[in-house]
TrEMBL record:
It is found in: Cell membrane; Membrane. One of its GO terms (biological process) is proton motive force-driven plasma membrane ATP synthesis. This is ATP synthase gamma chain. InterPro entries: ATP_synth_F1_ATPase_gsu, ATP_synth_F1_gsu, ATP_synth_F1_gsu_CS. The gene is atpG. Produces ATP from ADP in the presence of a proton gradient across the membrane. The gamma chain is believed to be important in regulating ATPase activity and the flow of protons through the CF(0) complex. Pfam families: ATP-synt. It is a peripheral membrane protein. Belongs to the ATPase gamma chain family. Keywords: ATP synthesis, Cell membrane, CF(1), Hydrogen ion transport, Ion transport, Membrane, Transport. GO terms for molecular function: ATP binding; proton-transporting ATP synthase activity, rotational mechanism. F-type ATPases have 2 components, CF(1) - the catalytic core - and CF(0) - the membrane proton channel. CF(1) has five subunits: alpha(3), beta(3), gamma(1), delta(1), epsilon(1). CF(0) has three main subunits: a, b and c. The keyword Acyltransferase does not apply. The lineage of its organism: Bacteria, Pseudomonadati, Pseudomonadota, Alphaproteobacteria, Acetobacterales. One of its GO terms (cellular component) is proton-transporting ATP synthase complex.
Length: 293
């Protein structure tokens, strides 16, 4: 049985852990408010940009010589997956959910005879995929490390993806990330970037889709809009992931703080019982000695 000294040390250790997890919860809550505001503000712009390009893509469907970012390479053999995770842990199942979604996609694509390449964003996802699928990784990119995400980070990644697409290094590009729902829920999502995906229920895909006249020319307009759309979608994804990370960390630290409190209660009860047992034993020894005299 543990001594009173050992129990006091364990109680003190758990109390220190509870202070740390409580502080981390408050920090995550403060960061969450800013990250959630930025993610929600980016959603309408990204959705409008995606819908506009989808309508343009439907209007030009079947034409030859379309940009790679719009129509892809015309093949479906090589898939580039870009899983977005965090650089830090202590966020519950936030990173594990993206890793699991990525692993499932890899298995599905390979079962269909496709070639898969990986470009993970974030240290946690990069470390996991390096252990499991090191031969598929093109490169790893560290995320923001908990800092505010500048648009330049999405622009650099977008330029790199566009350059790889123009070189024919892949046929299909898909982002895998956690879409922020609320503090308790982040949904693992796969979003196709290249070629531009047309929603199944989008009116742009119907036979009554409008025909567009481009001014300036179609090639000039799309050459400007498509790279910008790619960067905007990546930026919105990074913001969604950042908000989801803080929400997941806040929830995880709240659970850890509650569990630490329960552990302290159990240890305190055990400490009091042990102390009472020791006192009772000492009283019995004193009374027994007095009776012997």
């Amino acid at each position: 049985m543990a001594s009173l000294k050992d129990l006091r040390a364990r109680i003190g250790s758990v109390k220190s852990t509870r202070k740390i997890t409580s502080a981390m919860k408050m920090v995550a809550a403060a960061k969450l408010r800013r990250a959630q505001t930025r993610a929600e503000a980016a959603r309408p712009y990204a959705a409008a940009m995606r819908r506009m390009l989808a309508e343009l893509g439907a209007g030009t469907r079947g034409q030859s010589g379309l940009p790679t970012l719009l129509a892809g390479s015309g093949n479906d053999r090589v898939h580039l997956l870009i899983p977005v995770t965090s650089d830090r842990g202590l966020a519950g199942g936030f990173n594990a959910n993206v890793n699991r979604k990525t692993r499932d996609l890899i298995g599905q694509l390979q079962a269909e005879g496709k070639t898969v390449r990986l470009l993970p964003v974030g240290r946690k996802g990069g470390d996991y995929l390096m252990r499991e699928f090191s031969d598929l990784i093109v490169d790893t990119i560290h995320g923001s490390g908990g800092k505010e995400i500048p648009f330049s980070a999405a622009a650099e990644l977008g330029e790199r993806i566009a350059a790889m697409a123009e070189k024919g290094e892949f046929d299909v590009c898909t982002l895998v990330y956690n879409r922020f729902q609320n503090v308790m829920s982040q949904t693992p999502t796969a979003m196709q970037l290249i070629p531009l995906a047309l929603p199944a229920n989008d009116t742009a895909a119907s036979a009554d889709a409008p025909v567009y006249e481009f001014e300036p020319g179609e090639e000039e307009l799309l050459s400007s809009l498509l790279p910008r759309n790619l960067q905007v979608q990546i930026y919105a994804t990074l913001l969604e992931s950042a908000a989801g990370e803080q929400g997941a960390r806040m929830t995880a630290m709240d659970n850890a703080t509650r569990n630490a409190g329960k552990a302290i209660d159990r240890l305190t009860l055990k400490y009091n019982r042990t102390r009472q047992t020791n006192i009772t034993n000492e009283l019995i020894e004193i009374i027994s000695g007095a009776q012997a005299l």
